[in-house]
Amino acid sequence: MLLELNNIYKWVQSGGQKIFLLKDINLKVEEGEFISIMGPSGSGKSTLLNIIGMLDVFNEGEYNFLDEPVHSLKEKHRSNLYKQYIGFVFQAYHLLDELTVYENLEMPLLYKKYSSSERKALVADMLDKFNIVGKQNLFPSQLSGGQQQLVGIARALISSPKLILADEPTGNLNSKQGEEIMEIFKELNKDGVTIVQVTHSEKNATYGSRTINLLDGRKI
Amino acid sequence: MYNLYLKIASRFLLKNKLYSFINIMGLSVGIASFVLIMMYVANERNYDKFNGSENVYRVYMDYLEGNTFSPGDAQSYNLSGPTLKKEFPEIKEYVRFFHLQKTTFINENEVFEGNKGAIVDPSFFSVFDYPLVKGDVKDALAAPNSIVLQENLAEKIFGKESPIGKTLSIFWKGETTVTVTGILKDIPKNTHIKNNFLVSFETLKTWKAIPRQYEPNWSQNNFFTYIKVNKNTDIDALQQKIIKTNFEDDLDERHNIESLESIHLNSNKPYEAEANGSESRVKFLLAIAFIILILSWLNYVNLATTKSLERAKEIGIRKVSGAQRPQLIFQSLLESVLINCIAIVIATIVVVFTLPFFNSYTGEDLIVNSAVVLGLLPYLGFIFLGTVLSGLYPAIILSGYSPVVALKGKVRASSNGLNIRKGLIITQFFATIVLLIGTIVVAKQIKFLENQPIGANLDHVVAFNWEVLSKSKDSVLKRDNKLFESELRKLPYVKNVVSAETYPGGGYDNLSSTVGITFPNGTVDENRIFYTYNVSPGYFNLLDMEFVAGSSFLETAKRSSNKIVINEKMAKHMQIANLAEAVDETVKFWGEDWVISGVIKDYHHFGLKTAIEPILIRHYEDKNNLLVKFDKSVTSVAGFGTVLKKVENIWDNAYAQNVFNYTFLDKEFQSQYNEDKNFGSAFLIFTVLAILIASMGLFGLTSYTVVQRRKEIGVRKVNGANIVNILATLNKDFVKWITLAFIVAVPISWFTMLKWLEGFAYRTAISWWVFAVAGCTALVIALLTVSWQSLKAALANPVDALKDE
């Protein structure tokens, strides 16, 4: 088992009242799964994804990742776990505007212990794999949305994470570009990468092996 | 990884050109000003430093005034040095300087004028560690009529050939011949006693123009005396011993000593070798330097923090990609180091290029060389440390953003952060207002000094002075003088011609003094110094000086008499209540009787920085200066230039070889305030820079608040607010902050400027409008800066702001 959420609650205080973002979420994810999280706006999809990605904290419950209790880990330990196993893909790509494609791909490696020759090799691999060798010296603003997302996915994959978390990865793309991106996710999943995506689209959800529906912070 | 950091930083800077420009310019201007002022200060503080200078002291005279002694004369007697050395074994050596101002040399019919030098003891080289390029320090100044020239003067006179052994005519109130025995390496310009030649002391014995100076005596105190003490001498004990010993059997004065190195900034006695600097001025400038540097740091903090909001997304992405806080802080610091390095490079270029202007402005001679750079290194380290520290705050803010929030673009700076920025702006404006008030007060004081009536009319009066380079006897010269005078009177525009030893604004040069005087009522005053000079009878009329009793001297065939004219202050000292009674009374000094022929209204002889002194003006036709009063139409009709040329022609016809100089009296009088004017303009320049920097900070902060309040502005506009309403909303806060800064600035600057004004005997009032002008200026500048941004926000289409969600 890759990860397990038990009775997760998350709330914020507003005017002396607790507003629940997540209520009693239980979820098990096995390695190699491709899960889609669906639900209307404000149902807590992104919050759940951020919690799985350790970007956000929860108020109650347990979270085990590869048998490590995330809820009781120290910040540093959690950060190491995260660095090693998780990659993120965003709806708005979130590439660094000041960096070229090549440098954007290299960036996450700088925060992990890779030698410069290793970094070179890994970036070259990714450029190759996603067929963007010719674009390596361009800046994000010089790419189309689909190409930017391609770079975004390549960046998420570069340190070979076990888990890819994608927050509406096709939300800013047209249908053709979106389809291409989903095909890539499917391929990755076939290669053994676990994927959890948040999506609004029924069609995209069908790429996954399982769908989780949320409403008002609850699983239904 | 560092490469990448630098890459990001440089691309960020290139992309945000306005931000980078403001930021880097702010820092460059701050650093450049700081470095310039520091160079100036270092130069001022390094006066008279050479190997062993810490053991050199100047002997000066204290005079008893009332019950206390106060410094009365920077010069001492020719017996002072030898006697002190004999009495106190701690004193290793002494050297005496008889100062020769405006000396002229003639070498093979070529004339070299305007040289400053001194007649010194052979021991000069064992007190002052100035090396000789040629000649031997042991005997260069031993023989009579020997001269040691400074390298640049030697080259001017003799060119490339070796001057050793050559003879030279030297003129100073009379002529003698000297032989060059040594070449002195050029002395650094930061010394309080600038000599470009030295004449041996033995020369005094035979130099007829300088009588009564050679023989040991306790009556001619015309010597600067310097002593060198043994290392580790208890200087306080020595000073006490010197103060307590009465060498010349005169209880009204005593000898005292002061450190050579301290003279330039701390000594302001009568008869100094030159007008010295001032410690308080140096401190003022130092304070300004630090204020500007701190302003530019605050500016940097402000701008970087403001900009960090825009960089929240980048931080979010980095965090998601695995960056940890220390790495992000480090990156941010690296950026501030980069910005600062660029700023330091630009500042260096600015310093190198503005130095000539700075020099001509301040009258200094600052240069950039390895020693200066080495001396500045600690300050550069300080600058660097400061900027790294100021980079830390934005770094911590920036790295603290939560990635989830940052990626959604919903970063809102905490109200705490905003308070810090407000604090920074208030501090900046506080400093700016203080500097503004300072500038206005300094300018007001200078204006006051210039416009204050001085009791004499110096307009269109020119003093001609010359050296007659001829071996003819004095009597012949005098007759020629008369001829020259009558020729001058024939010139158009010339209203009056009079000879005088000195004039208002002439300073202590050519001014004699006496301590010990018997008043008409028989009282003997030996407690204070009285100044006196020679004039011919027409002097008072020419300068429009007003008599309150009696009149000027009568013209006599002898051209001199025992008559004197005194000023009111002198009469007061003599306890003469009814000024008319002073006329025909007798005063005794210098062992002679002097009869008062008139009392003039008090006039300012020394400028308005000092109080009016009692003055005795003697009747003696001195050939030092010929004062010529021109008709005021001379400037409009003929022009001074042509008229002066005519005067020079007349003089040239009379004498083949001569040196001819002239001075405009009004200009020379005003030049007493030159240091203050320079200080005023330095104040102004640095105030403008400070305002510039503070405005940049404000500009940064506004762009930030405007972004923050975009939605608010949108909502207000949709609900009917017009542009004026929006501007008012946005600018209200800034008005509040500047008011706060103003309230704090007023008492502090009022107190500081009051202290500064204490340095003047006659001072302007710090009126309420000074504060009002400073406050309004700051406010107007701030509002203009702010409105640039606010207006943009107010004009924006609210739809753009609101559809963001």
UniProtKB/TrEMBL annotation, chain A:
SUPFAM superfamilies: P-loop containing nucleoside triphosphate hydrolases
Keyword ATP-binding carried by entry: yes
Record flagged with keyword GTP-binding: no
UniProt GO cellular component terms: membrane protein complex
GO terms for MF: ATP binding; ATP hydrolysis activity; transmembrane transporter activity
InterPro entries: AAA+_ATPase, ABC_transporter-like_ATP-bd, ABC_transporter-like_CS, MacB-like_ATP-bd, P-loop_NTPase
Protein keywords: ATP-binding, Lipoprotein, Nucleotide-binding, Translocase, Transport
ABC transporter domain span: 3-220
Pfam families documented for this protein: ABC_tran
Homology family: Belongs to the ABC transporter superfamily. Macrolide exporter (TC 3.A.1.122) family.
Name of the molecule in the record: ABC-type lipoprotein export system, ATPase component
Organism from which the protein derives: Cellulophaga fucicola
UniProtKB/TrEMBL annotation, chain B:
InterPro entries in alphabetical order: ABC3_permease_C, MacB_PCD, Macrolide_Exporter_MacB
GO molecular function, one term: transmembrane transporter activity
Domain MacB-like periplasmic core: 20-243, 429-607
Subcellular location: Cell membrane
Chain ranges of the ABC3 transporter permease C-terminal domain: 287-402, 685-794
First-listed, main subcellular location of the protein, grouped into a coarse class: membrane
Alphabetical keyword list: Cell membrane, Membrane, Transmembrane, Transmembrane helix
Topological type in the membrane: Multi-pass membrane protein
Membrane-spanning ranges: 21-42, 284-303, 337-359, 379-402, 423-443, 682-707, 734-754, 766-786
PANTHER family: ABC-TYPE MACROLIDE FAMILY EXPORT SYSTEM PERMEASE COMPONENT 2, MEMBRANE COMPONENT OF TRANSPORTER-RELATED
Protein's name according to its UniProt entry: Putative ABC transport system permease protein
Lineage: Bacteria, Pseudomonadati, Bacteroidota, Flavobacteriia, Flavobacteriales
